[in-house]
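This part of the workshop introduces the protein records we will be handling. An example says more than a description, so a record of this kind follows:
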Amino acid sequence: MSASSEKKTVYSFVPGLVAFVVIFIMVLALWQLFMDANGILKLYTPMYGFSLVAVWLTSIIMISKVFEFYPFSEEQMIGKGGIVRGLFLTIMSLCLMLIITYGIFWNLIGKFGVAYFSPYSIVISGGSGAEPFIARENASTAIIYFVTVFIWWALVWELGFGRWPWKDTSQGVRAWSRFCSISILTVLTYAVFFHPHVCQLFYPPQDKAGVAPWWAEYAGTGSAFFSLGLALCSLKWVVLSDLLWEGYPWKFLGKQGEGNFIRGFFTLLSSVILGIISMVVLLKIMNIYWMEPFEGGQYTDAPYFRYLHAGEISGFIILAAFILKTYFNNFPNLSALSLTAILRTLVAFLGGGLVYGFYYSDLSVKLLGKVPGIAQPDDTPLVWTMLFLSVVIVHGQFLKSWPVKRSDT
């Protein structure tokens, strides 16, 4: 096995389960400290806290997947674990979160470019919706949309394009080239699928800055929750393919597992198609359970909620896939990868269902201080899901699951 190959870590069931329980308790503690409405900092407004968690997850993905730990050398990073390394990278990701949120969005782009990315600029502009709280919620909403698109493109790029077309260049050139490419694609995607909705958040609508949501006629809503739900449904298949299917079937399109344009294109196209299919299936199931939604409907009857909820369900499955990979060694591990991939996917779907059941149970109302029921205006499951996911990735990627004992094969 080459030095650049990812080492497989073999866990026994008990240490992995213990590590998962510890991480779960840690997430609850972080929620109590930062998010809980009855807690200390009360950042869960919900969009302000949502934006911070989303940007933190983006920072983690940026460090590990986009920059591949640059400027540190690959020899320093690959296969290395330990508390010091993990804490350093974690602090680095938190600092990057603060820089992106308050430096780049609030005080650079929002101040000198697109005003709605900064609550300060919205307040200064005056008019309806310029109250400090609403301004911060609207700015946070725009930031959430933007960084979610970045995460989607980053993971699609890693799975499909890999290090193409810079695989023979230096680590620095590869890192910055990938970052610039993903950023450009993020800006274009955001401008088409999310910007029109953000322009409608203000009164009067900013119709000279953005067109009316072009999807409203057939989606039944002008909300970009339609686009967010689709992005998360698509991202689910990217994650499942990367973690549970070990990169297949897209690896067949590249030599020696290397990414290329053809592999990247088909990864992108297939994940979007699978995302559309899975979203339609989830919407049909919701229609059976809650009847047909309608424009002007509230709570579970609202079309925008149905699209968002499809994304939330996908988020639960994504979290379950990362937990399975990080703490349970991608159980099961059979000789036939095709059968293994099917069984792992079923386990991830079952795990997502268990997470769903927990989140909407009376237990989570007590532990998380959330609003009881489904489709409450002040309840956004993706905040808790992304926080949990961020901690799991930090533990698995930065800390290499320290201090769980392991043997590398």
